[in-house]
Amino acid sequence: MKGTETIGLCRVLKEKNITIKEGFKNISELVNFSLSIIYSDISDEVLKKMIETKKEQMYLSTVFDNGLFIPHIKIDLAKDFYASLVILKSPLILEENKKIHICFTLISPLNKKFFEKHLKILSSVASTFKNPDDFKNLTPLEVYNKITQK
Amino acid sequence: MKKVKKIFILSTAVLSFISFWRAASIVISDFGSSAYYAGGIAAKSYGPAFPYFIFMVMILAGFLLMAYVESSSLFTRGGIYVVVKNAFGKTLAKFGVSSLVFDYLLTGPVSAISAGLYIAYLLDVILPYFKISVGLSPRFIAVVFSLAVIFYFWYENIKGVKESSSKNVKITIFTSIVGFILVVLSVYTVFKKGFKLPPFEISFTEESLGWIKDIGLKPVGLLGIIMAFGQSILALSGLETLAQVFREIEDPKVKNLKKSVLIIFSFGILFNGLLTFFSAAIIPYDKIINEYAENLLSGLCMELALPYSLKIIMKILVVISAFLMLVGGVNTSIVGANGILNRVAEDGILPDKIRKLHPKYGTTYIIITVVAALQSIIVILSGGDVFILGEAYAFGVLWSITLNLFSLIVLRFKKFGGEYYSKFPLNIRIDKYEIPLGLIILFLIVFATSFVNLFTKKIATIGGISFSLLLYIIFTYFEKKEEGKIDIHDINGDVEDEKVNINTEDDISSLFKKITKPNKILVPVRNPNNLSHLKYVLENFNDDDTDIVVLYIKVEKGYEIAFNYDKLTSDEKELFKNVILMAEKYGKTVNPVIIFSNDPFYIILYVAVSGGFNRICMGVSGSLGAEAQLENLAVEWGFVRPNDFNSKIEVNIIWESRILSYSLS
Q1: CA distance A62 to A66
Q2: Is B506-664 a CATH 3.40.50.1100 domain?
Q3: Does the model's ipTM exceed the 0.90 cut?
Q4: Which residue of chain A comes nearest to B650, CA vs CA?
Q5: Which of B84, B313, B398, B520 has the fewest CB neighbours in a 10 Å radius?
Q6: Residue A4 falls within a domain, yes or no?
């Protein structure tokens, strides 16, 4: 696999897929909400069903110490990347005192030629949301502009 | 986000490796040193035929070195103990080690006293010119000198073999130059004075006949030849040291070992063999016996066809070389005894405590101290009489080599072998069996000599058997005592419990100050049975220009260290044992590091960036899989990547014969 630099997130994340919200009871609720945003971009019902069958894998994704949560899966039917961003006004508190401040959901094509880009996007997400507090009081447009600047 | 909690650097004295030159020089320091005393002792023992037998012993040494190549290619941490144990079991192995330790304890004092005598006899010639009279006997001077030398090398070995072996290289070079000059001047003398071959006459003294005369046998014919040959075996010391330093020879190990063997053999023939021959050809036999038996090569200098002043200069050079070489022999004896007793202790036959490492230098200081202390006692008891020590010597060398050769023959039939197996030549195939004829012939020669020596070398037989039995009893006692504590290591001669030192560093930057090579590879390890990625690195990268850092991350929850980390867990010991054994097998330097953290992927990248690494080689995680590992690394890279980072880190995830690569930039 060739070397990559981090990738601009605006290439996979649309402004309309950024939401500021609170009141999630658990991870599954948060993931389901994030996916519902993504589904608006997907017309292929088979692909949606496939994501639904594999979405439980996303609940197990790592929650990082800074409050970033990146649920992600690779689907072989997907021909492109789909992403949504949920910024939680008040964090979702989990076991062991872990908190989710930002949820970036990513659906990637399950294909060798996309894997490198998939990794690049993951790096970019972590790099962009290193400090979740920077995004706390922004509107979706401001978040999008901030991401675009990065 | 405090992720790094505590950094520990793990070190042993064996994780850096030496060149074939250095390995050869360690052995030569012992093997070559016998040139200064073996001829004189042999001449006194059985008469004018001694140079022929010394020469024969040198040729035998060549074959034995080849046999050591075979045993070393079988076991990285080999030597007599491991070889005999795998062939016959522990009982004979313990006996082999016991007898060999006896000789290691003797060879140091023989070398030291011989050096002391060379110096004392030089002072005898020089001091009268300055009207100085010391009034001390040469043997007394030799004893005092020997104790000082043993003390010096005890300290050097406490500091570590690498430091002491660098001196051996210089000593070997200097001695080779002096030896070459001596050979040239001897040739000149032979041309000038004429040449007469030393007579092949054997006449044994009462002492050298031993019990043969009581049995009523006549020392003539083949028996006489074997007896004389056996009396010359003291020229054959230091070979076991080759097996002990093999683990420290750099990659490619077996090829380098063969180069070391060639150097040692050439040195033995040209220095020991040829110079002893010239001494016998140039110095009248009576003079050898009456004046130069304790300092034969000094005698050769005084008989050269040169003006007196030049003779004295040559004598001074020879004494300096004798001093350097013989004291090097003391060092080698300590290195060798330490090595072989370590192999025994690793196997639970000696208390594990005696392998405790020196807190600063990482050496097995208790074993080294015991060896040096026993050698000092032997020096004092000998009263500086090199002939008594010469009489006592050779029991262990011969019987350990006999056992070693017999074991190699047995191992051939047990189908031992491996990737780098290098067989002793002359093997005949009969049907589906391969007969190791070369080894068998060599074994018969050595066995015959060992057997005859039992009857001729009284002091060696009594001393050797008594000491070996005593040591054997000690081994057996501790083996029983340690039994429930330590598992017996497996048939492949693995080490059960590698001793390591742990040094603590305050932060990661101080950890990497010593890692300065142009290429740096970080090898995270976790599972002792999954080190194929380390194997890949050791096989594919050259440690001349690459620093290999093996990183173990101990995952700890919470941010404070709540307990004492002085001791590793058994799993961690197993992991680092395997790392060390693999590094030894490939002869490449690795730098093991333990870091305590709650986030392994973060730490891997943090260390890679902080240390300027250009490659990370990971094994595949059984629970995650290679792709998920890369995903985790990719996310962490987003956190760790400094804004001004402008180079690349190649990540390889390696499993079986597959590699998944990704470049972090």
Answers
A1: 11
A2: no
A3: no
A4: A3
A5: B313
A6: no
